[in-house]
Design a protein that fits this description.
two-stranded antiparallel sheet; 22% helix; 4 strands; alpha+beta; 1 helix
């Protein structure tokens, strides 16, 4: 079944339960309280790929969370 809404996924840090985003000035990954401010992915595969890359570098793979419309 197709939806008129695009799927959206964000990454959630395991230890803190906060969401991951990219600082627009320094381009550093940071944790945020709100999923609406987090780095958004439009495919599950893209979100999983980035979560794995982050896990390889930081040692803790974030969760991929689908946002509901």
């Amino acid at each position: 079944m197709f939806s008129k809404y695009a799927e959206r996924y964000v990454l959630r840090s395991n230890p803190s339960g906060r969401y991951l985003g990219v600082n627009e000035h320094s381009q550093v990954i940071e944790t945020l309280d709100s999923p609406s401010l987090a780095w958004t992915f439009h495919t599950h595969d893209g979100a999983v790929r980035h979560a794995r890359w982050i896990g390889e570098v930081h040692g803790d793979t974030p969760d991929v969370v689908r946002l509901e419309d």
